[in-house]
Request: fold
Amino acid sequence: MLWLTTVKDVAPRPSLIDEHTADVAIIGGGMMGASAALHLAERGISVVLLEKHSVAYGASGRNAGVVAPMFARGDPDDVAARLGKDAGGRLNNFIAGAGDLVFDLVRRHGIDCDAEQTGFLQPAHAKAALPGLEKRFEQWQRHGKKVELLDKVQTEAITGTDKFPGALMDLSGGQINPAKFTYGLIAAAEKAGALVHENTQALNMRRTSRGWRILTPQGNLTAGKVLLATNAMVDGIWPILRKTFLPLTVTQLATKPLDAATARRILPGRQAATDTSGQPFSFRLDAENRLISAAVGIWPFGEKDRLSPGIRRRLAKMLNLDQVPEEELIWEGTAALTSDFLPRLHPLETGLYAAIGCNGRGIAVTTALGPHLAGLLAGDDAALPVDICDMEKVRGYFLAQHGPRLYMPWARFKDFKDTLRDR
Ligand SMILES: Cc1cc2nc3c(=O)[nH]c(=O)nc-3n(C[C@H](O)[C@H](O)[C@H](O)COP(=O)(O)OP(=O)(O)OC[C@H]3O[C@@H](n4cnc5c(N)ncnc54)[C@H](O)[C@@H]3O)c2cc1C
Reply:
């Protein structure tokens, strides 16, 4: 995983040993757990975070680092229609501000994570996508988001390629090194008083008269309240959660660094981009000018090695590059998709919550949920941006879990048809 190799001089946090107590326990050391721990500690609440592997081992250290504060599917009006005016309005306003919150946290805590609030760009993969982008632009503008609609010429000027007929730019988005960001949040949480234990798997939990007792291999923790921040990495600790979302394995690739002139040609403004195609084409530059892109494979095994040439070919074609630098690193991660592509907050039992399903847009969503989760766990009764709802198992999970992968050939065919019409 590229991003974890860039985290330098960080001593591992000690495993949990012996008996401990805390007001709140957080299980999972990704962005969600880290942001919730930080905001709890800032309220003076004692909080202990347990991470099975190392900080950012999950999706938080494996993603593309694109801060894309929008919905993965659908727009604000769709969300309001689905959830109702009140709940939909809260979620829309929350997402509208989520990008700024990420970059504000970076500034406030001086997090060194190559953060660039240069904008999240969503190029249209074909003319057929332009009306949808116009609708998206108009709806987000109504929610106070700083968005711009770009025509073909403007899009070419900021991507160096003539392949896109237009684009939507969200100026509150941008890019970060996600592992450095997560470590930065953890360091800020520790500074505020949180305790963090790595290599500490929560094996089991049971309610006692003093709260939740969490068993780990070398020690135990009793806490009044617990947040499960395991997202798609959920294991045997609450196995039923696994059946509430569909897993999507994404292969990420980083090339060796581009030369400075080519980097300036393709992304002079250093935006992070994901287009509108059904099999999205994402591209961005990291701090060393490596090109970062991704693909989703159809087969469950050995995808990493098979996908690499295809990802590099797509980069070459879409960005008009004669030569794409060699692969430097390739890795996989699993995202959690919910049926409506919206995040979920579940009460599992008294004092035990799980937040899940950030649908490939999790950097902004999980981080920005942190202050609200802290409020919930501290006992505030303020309205949350995501309403608490009971768990719902995905119908026909056994087959449905393969759905996101099996959808890919159809998505490719549809993308192909859309682009064919433009010729
Ligand atoms: C390949 C990929 C690319 C993506 N790209 C983007 C992107 O560009 N932009 C974007 O916004 N979003 C993206 N996402 C989504 C985003 O990365 C996630 O939504 C986000 O990182 C989720 O953070 P989290 O803290 O909720 O979960 P995670 O980061 O997955 O953390 C969960 C943690 O829980 C730990 N854990 C699990 N069980 C236990 C246990 N029993 N005890 C202790 N610890 C446990 C795991 O080890 C893990 O570290 C991408 C996702 C993937 C997989």
The first strand starts at residue 18 and ends at 27. The two ends are 38 Å apart (CA to CA). The CA atoms of residues 33 and 338 lie 19 Å apart. The chain has two domains: 1-116+176-242+339-392, 120-171+246-337+397-423.
